[in-house]
Design goal:
With about 475 residues, this protein is mainly α. Helix content is about 45%, strand content about 5%. The protein contains 23 helices and 9 strands. Helix 14 crosses helix 16 (about 330-345). The model has no long low-confidence stretch (mean pLDDT about 95).
Length: about 475
């Protein structure tokens, strides 16, 4: 009621609200802002646990700019760089679906609960299919790329359903991962997930886990209210989305996510519960992309592709790096993570920043001109990112995380990819982690930050606190 009154008083107010899934503390409940979602990590459940339905905000003060003339000049240069980038044009046409064919082509596309990495039916879900269904191009305020696409389902029982998306991740997790090569179904399922307030990545991966558990006889129709869980069945997807959001029947178990669900089910199901630190993996298999995979393994929020994306391996940007080589990937991952940590605290959009469609030095100049503070150039920016990363890491360390948690389900460590462009690849966890911790200046045996590194970053107080807890690396 308070929320509604705020919105009535100021129609320009922006809102962040949870849906029925957040109210029921589904572990991967989202927060909805306009037509977009804060999807990962279950922030909707956090709000639900505090009986917080939503927040409305509005502002009426101008935003002061330190050097407006210089800022305008720099932004003109930034726009020039973005306009010249091939990636900008592809994002303008397809949104993130631009990468669907590529990820499949390089054999990195999760298919049937990450057992395989090439989707034979991928063409039915490609970017052009999205363009055919796009009714509106839009985006974040003042963005020249406008990668958001409002799409609608064209045919069949879901015709007319519409959504802001689907993004690449949802193409895969509601599509290829479950062997459902029908974009109209994906759009409708995406709309349901948004309306209920659940993350499409975690939802799809959890349903995929449930289907494999059913195939192996770990779940039966007695557990699923008679529903036969199988690949390629849209009824399974649509039914389970609702059951999860409302914690009905089997949905109550699946609402816990794959880590907790597999711990409850046992019988070896941990082997194919696809997560890192309890967060379901996104639509990339870590085995054929070592730095990208290492980024997901060591991400401070668990299995996220968004924080330290290995663009060099996946897109060859800003410079191409061999995907399968493991040497140098620890160092590369540290670079990608530090760059992203800095970029996100400046609120640079991740897409052009990580692929460097606009050059890092123009971004640092813009921040300096806007704030009037000389933060230095890109070297200093990376140092800021490193500092952020170490503070986040220290938070996790305080909560009990260490090297044991920087890992993957055994499927990726023991099972070579059976076929397709990346056949034979596994994830070489131990050597990759060793190099990563060395590059971070942390203790290799435990993965804990060292006093020397924390003090170098002006974080002595954190080093003192971790030492008191016996959680400082040697
Ligand atoms: S800022 Fe980024 S996410 Fe937003 S519309 Fe532009 S490219 Fe897309």
């Amino acid at each position: 009621l308070i929320l509604k009154e705020h919105i009535i008083r100021n129609p320009r107010a922006e809102t962040a609200v949870i849906g029925p899934a957040g109210e029921r503390l589904v572990r991967y409940a989202t927060v909805q802002c306009g037509t977009r979602q804060l999807g990962r990590g279950g922030i909707g459940a956090v709000m639900g646990s505090k009986n917080l339905k939503g927040v409305a905000v509005y502002g009426d003060k101008p935003i002061p700019i330190a050097n407006e003339e210089l800022l305008k000049e720099l932004v003109r240069e930034q726009v020039k760089q973005l306009a010249a980038a091939h990636g900008t044009k592809r994002m303008q046409r397809y949104g993130t679906a631009a990468i669907h064919a590529l990820i499949n082509q390089i054999g990195d596309y999760p298919y049937k609960n990450f057992r395989e990495t090439f989707y034979p039916d991928h063409e039915k879900l490609n970017g052009e299919e999205k363009v055919k269904r796009t009714i509106r191009n839009t985006g974040c305020p003042n963005c020249m790329i406008m990668c958001w696409k409002f799409t609608y389902a064209r045919e069949g029982p879901y015709a007319g359903a519409w959504v802001d998306g689907p993004e690449y991740e949802t193409f895969c997790t509601f599509g290829g991962l479950l062997d459902i090569p029908n974009l109209d179904v994906v759009i409708y399922a995406n709309q349901l997930a948004d309306n209920y307030g659940i993350d499409t990545i975690s939802t799809g991966v959890t349903i995929s886990f449930a289907i494999e558990a059913f195939e192996r006889g770990i779940l039966t129709t007695k557990d699923t209210d008679g529903l036969e869980l199988k690949w390629g069945d849209e009824k399974v997807l649509l039914t389970l989305i609702r059951k999860i959001a409302f914690r009905e029947g089997i949905g109550d178990l699946l609402a816990e996510g794959v880590k907790r669900a597999s711990e409850k089910l046992g019988r070896g199901s941990e082997y194919f519960a696809i997560h890192v630190k309890g967060l379901e993996l996104p639509a990339y298999d870590p085995r054929p992309v070592k730095a990208h995979g290492l980024g997901m393994v060591t991400s401070n929020i668990g299995g996220s592709h968004a924080i330290g994306y290995g663009t060099q391996e996946v897109f060859g940007l800003p410079t191409k790096v061999d995907r399968y080589t493991i040497e140098g990937k620890g160092k590369l991952t540290v670079y990608n993570q530090n760059r992203l940590a800095w970029g996100e605290c400046c609120i640079w959009c991740t897409f052009p920043t990580r692929s460097e469609w606009h050059k890092p030095d123009i971004l640092t100049k813009i921040i300096n001109a806007a704030t009037g503070i000389d933060f230095g150039g890109f070297e200093e920016a990376l140092k800021i990112g490193e500092r952020i990363w170490n503070v986040e890491k220290a938070f996790n360390v305080r909560e009990g995380f260490d090297r044991r948690h920087d890992t993957l389900p055994e499927r990726f460590l023991k099972e070579p990819i059976p076929s397709g462009p990346s056949a034979g690849q596994i994830f070489e966890l131990e050597p990759l982690l060793n190099e990563y911790y060395q590059a971070r200046g942390w203790d290799v045996a435990t993965g804990l930050p060292t006093r020397a590194k924390l003090e170098e970053l002006d974080l002595k107080d954190i080093a003192d606190e971790l030492e008191k807890m016996g959680r400082l690396g040697g």
